[in-house]
């Protein structure tokens, strides 16, 4: 089945300051891959039978990469709602933990929460087998440590061991937080956000001014599947 994801703004490659921002754009998805990226009018004319998901006044970008996966999934503890101790990660709550089942359950909850921030990739290293299994089964892309492309080995090692939030956009600009591009033939991993600043006021991407500023996550698509939608 073909699905068109329509948004007021589509940013196929925020990491490239020269890449265009598509107004009233759309991403056409077939299975787990992106079939095409372009204007909504052009894609609907070419594929009149495609199912349409309307995201309204929103910005669609590649999914985000969380560079703090090691700390978030192997050291922090993500509470079970039945424990009634809140939902925020408990700092170093898994340090010294020997129960693999508890570690795996915590990792699954943490990964599920990441989806609510538009995360489609998470950085390791992951030393616990239960955590590696949770990441593999989640569908998120597991990647090496280091928050920004081009970071040196020392910087990557420091970041892999450091603490950080579930939401990469809380500490990183969009250009540094995205994982890959939304491109025809690529895996359909992307996120949809509210628009928190009009394009004329946005400075995301440095030289690529005129781009919209993303706000809260509305939806996350992973391998073509809608895995998170804000209620």
TrEMBL record:
Aminodeoxyfutalosine deaminase/Imidazolonepropionase-like composite domain span: 25-50
MF term (GO), any: metal ion binding
Keywords: Hydrolase, Metal-binding, Zinc
Record-linked Gene3D superfamilies: Metal-dependent hydrolases (3.20.20.140), Urease, subunit C, domain 1 (2.30.40.10)
Keyword Acyltransferase tagged: no
InterPro entries xref list: Metal-dep_hydrolase_composite, MQNX/HUTI_composite_N
Protein's recorded name: Aminodeoxyfutalosine deaminase/Imidazolonepropionase-like composite domain-containing protein
């Amino acid at each position: 089945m073909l699905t068109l994801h329509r948004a007021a703004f589509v940013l196929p490659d925020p990491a490239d300051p020269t890449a265009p921002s598509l107004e009233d754009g759309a991403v056409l998805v077939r299975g787990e891959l992106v079939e095409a990226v372009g204007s909504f009018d052009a894609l609907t004319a070419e594929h009149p039978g495609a199912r349409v998901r309307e995201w309204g006044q929103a910005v669609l970008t590649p999914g985000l990469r969380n560079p703090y996966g090691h700390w978030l999934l192997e050291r922090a503890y993500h509470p079970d709602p039945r424990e009634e101790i809140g939902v925020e990660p408990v700092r170093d709550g898994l340090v010294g933990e020997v129960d693999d089942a508890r570690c795996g359950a915590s990792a699954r909850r943490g990964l599920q929460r990441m989806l609510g921030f538009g995360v489609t990739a998470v950085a390791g290293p992951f030393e616990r087998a239960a955590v590696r299994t949770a990441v593999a089964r989640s569908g998120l892309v597991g990647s090496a440590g280091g928050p920004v492309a081009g970071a040196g080995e020392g910087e990557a090692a420091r970041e892999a061991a450091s603490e950080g939030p579930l939401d990469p956009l809380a500490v990183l600009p969009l250009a540094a937080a995205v994982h890959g591009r939304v491109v025809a033939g690529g895996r359909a991993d992307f996120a949809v956000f509210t628009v928190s600043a009009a394009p004329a006021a946005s400075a995301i991407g440095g030289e690529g001014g005129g781009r919209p500023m993303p706000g809260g996550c509305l939806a996350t698509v992973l391998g073509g599947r809608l895995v998170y939608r804000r209620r």
